[in-house]
Q: What sequence folds into this?
């Protein structure tokens, strides 16, 4: 299924020789024509394949034997760290406001699968004044990074691009205390992550549903007698709906509590309360729109807490990235 662990030592942990050859150690020498970090033989689930991921100053590249994708940082909306329950890998989802294309397939989210047991060291290959310039713009940039390959990748990409990062929040599975539950969408099995501001389903296809776009949810009994599962239908304000099937019955009360606490309308509330034993803090109306301050990121903290950047709004994030890009282009024109 493509979930095998990567062999150790596949990260190109230092580009010092390349940087020296290009003169990147000198002030202003790094002009974006060489990568500042590179990750070799990375298992990407969407679009599927083994890629080298090169991070440049203004864009990233995913390079494989069959071709490459180039993604400008202005099109990065947000990164999501999605640890799968009882699995030796962690997914990193990179959400885009302009999808990449392979043939007739468009990819709104790039899913990168990292092994949990690989430790790496990375030295960002950029001049001191370039690094200081990124820090002055508010990027949380570090020259030297060490730790799990997933963490190093996220910090490197966040540092050079300014893209925000979201990790799982308060939801814990009733079965294994993980951050997601197994389920199926259409004919494929995957994982549903109830985040603080959205549902994120992975993997075919990845689906990100902001709670602001949810009109209501309905808890449905599985069609199979004695299956021990239930279905969750999520209905959007634009009349689109998504049905996530075969969620373990043990998660029923857990999901009821979570959805109720998020002020999401439960369409069949009376039935659900009866099935759940009347517990929970049921809400019958959706919460009010969140103010701008609810989406301020937590990058002012220096300790990379597990709660960093939890809150987000996809529309606002995309607008902020585009506004920032316009301002940078105007500064370049002034120079």
A:
């Amino acid at each position: 299924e493509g979930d095998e662990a990567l062999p150790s030592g596949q990260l190109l942990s230092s580009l010092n020789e390349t940087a020296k050859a290009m003169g990147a150690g000198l002030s202003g020498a790094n002009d974006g024509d060489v990568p500042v970090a590179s990750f070799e033989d990375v298992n990407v689930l969407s679009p599927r394949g083994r890629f080298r991921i090169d991070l440049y100053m203004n864009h990233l590249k995913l390079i494989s034997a069959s071709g490459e994708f180039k993604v400008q940082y202005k099109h990065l909306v947000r990164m999501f760290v999605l640890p799968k329950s009882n699995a030796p890998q962690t997914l990193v989802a990179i959400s885009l406001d302009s999808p990449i294309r392979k043939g007739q397939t468009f990819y709104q989210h790039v899913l990168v699968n990292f092994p949990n047991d690989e430790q790496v060291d990375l030295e960002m290959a950029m001049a001191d004044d370039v690094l200081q310039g990124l820090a002055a713009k508010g990027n949380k940039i570090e020259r030297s990074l060490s730790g799990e390959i997933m963490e190093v990748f996220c910090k490197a990409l966040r540092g050079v691009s300014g893209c925000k990062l979201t990790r799982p929040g308060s939801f814990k599975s009733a079965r294994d205390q993980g951050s997601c539950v197994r389920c199926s969408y259409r004919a494929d099995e995957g994982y549903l992550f109830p985040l603080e501001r959205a549902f994120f389903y992975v993997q075919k296809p990845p689906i990100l549903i902001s709670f602001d776009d949810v009109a209501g949810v309905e808890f449905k009994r599985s069609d199979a007698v004695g299956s021990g599962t239930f279905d969750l239908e999520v209905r959007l304000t634009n009349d689109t709906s998504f049905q996530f099937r075969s969620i373990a019955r043990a998660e029923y009360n857990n999901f009821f509590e979570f959805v109720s606490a998020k002020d999401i309308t439960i369409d069949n509330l009376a039935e659900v309360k009866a099935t759940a034993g009347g517990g929970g803090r049921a809400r019958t109306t959706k919460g009010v729109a969140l103010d701008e301050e609810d989406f301020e990121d937590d990058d002012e903290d220096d300790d990379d807490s597990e709660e960093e950047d939890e809150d987000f709004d996809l529309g606002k994030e995309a607008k902020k990235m585009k506004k920032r890009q316009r301002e940078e282009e105007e500064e370049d024109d002034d120079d």
Remarks:
- The mean pLDDT is 78.
- Helices lie at 16-22, 128-136, 149-161, 252-261, 269-275, 314-334.
- The CA atoms of residues 172 and 179 lie 5 Å apart.
- The radius of gyration is 21 Å.
